[in-house]
Design goal:
Length: 132
């Protein structure tokens, strides 16, 4: 599913298992996880409820730097982020910004656009490894 630059992939696993699988594949690929933000825990800390919703922020300078060399403002959208969340029925999903959409946002062309294509393919592979 693609929705205004967002890619959402349904998981065959729970949200917690999908998160564990994504973190594992990132670690295996040598991709640094910069932060894990548990939005549901944040909501609970102020006595609000939210279904499982965790944001992972991750990246590899070898992949992102060429985009920022073309336009430093791309740094607003990097590092990459993936949201692991569950709907009301308990079905888990992974949602992320399509790197091709990011490239279009900044009008990237040439080598930066090519790097974006490789980044998009890699991110898709990571998401399917976590959800499959």
């Amino acid at each position: 599913m693609d929705d205004e630059g967002l890619v959402t992939i349904q998981s065959a696993h729970s949200g917690a298992e999908t998160l564990t699988r994504l973190e594992s594949v990132l670690h295996t690929k040598g991709i640094q996880v910069f932060a894990r933000i548990d939005h549901a825990a944040g909501a609970a800390s102020v006595d609000l409820t939210l279904r499982p919703t965790v944001l992972l922020i991750f990246g590899d300078p070898r992949a992102g730097t060429p985009l920022m060399q073309a336009d430093q403002r791309v740094g607003l959208d990097l590092p990459l982020k993936a949201l692991i969340w569950e709907d009301v029925a308990g079905q888990a999903f992974v949602t992320y910004n399509d790197p091709r959409w990011i490239a279009g946002r900044y009008g990237l062309t040439g080598p930066a656009a090519e790097a974006t294509g490789r980044l998009a393919a890699g991110l898709e592979g990571l998401a399917y490894a976590a959800t499959g």
